[in-house]
Amino acid sequence: MRIVIGADEVLPVATCVVDAVRNRGHEVVLVGPLAGDAMEWAEVGYRTACAVARGDAEVGIVLCWSGTGVAIAANKVPGARAALCTDAQTARLARTYDHANLLALSMRLTTTIVAEEILDGFFDAPFGTEDFDLRNIAFLHDHDGLGQDR
């Protein structure tokens, strides 16, 4: 699988995530300082999500100090569903219930050990296929966030 990873700083948890994804056998594309390009969190989140929405990568991972900024920026991109996850179970549920295609992580809160657990949860969980899951994803798809139905 091709995975795009963006971070606004090169910190140990970010490099751990890159190494862990590569060690799982995935192809990695880097965005922002991880790729040697100076970028702030808003641009990192947005550009990483664009790569996923365009189909240049199947999944994205975004990191900033809180994880919130990159998640907000990523979710501005139509077709992106970024979930800020602080534990493996939340990551599993984000994939199953929310069909998250981007994982957002806090570089302040997430240790390298917890990051590995979150990655396991995120990558091991399939998109949910129950009626409940599909109904909610369809609702999100059909609404543009401005109170107007498509």
Describe the structure.
The protein has 150 residues and is of the alpha/beta class. It has one domain: Sugar-phosphate isomerase, RpiB/LacA/LacB (Ribose 5-phosphate Isomerase B, Chain: A), CATH 3.40.1400.10. It contains 6 helices and 5 strands. Helix 1 packs across helix 5. The longest helix is centred in the N-terminal third of the chain and has 14 residues. The radius of gyration is 14 Å and the shape is globular. The model has no long low-confidence stretch (mean pLDDT 94).
Q: How many helices in DSSP terms?
A: 6
Give the strand order, joined by hyphens, for the main sheet.
2-1-3-5-4
- Tell me about the biggest sheet? 5 strands, parallel
Class by SSE composition = alpha/beta
- In whole angstroms, the N-to-C terminal distance is 32 Å
CATH architecture assignment name: 3-Layer(aba) Sandwich
Radius of gyration: 14 Å
State the helical fraction.
40-55%
Strand content: 15-25%
CATH topology category name: Ribose 5-phosphate Isomerase B, Chain: A
Task: Kindly state the number of beta strands.
Answer: 5
The H-and-E topology, N to C, reads as EHEHEHEHEHH
- The geometry reads as globular
Given as residue ranges, the uncertain stretches (5+ residues, pLDDT < 50) are: none
CATH class: Alpha Beta
Mean pLDDT across residues: 94
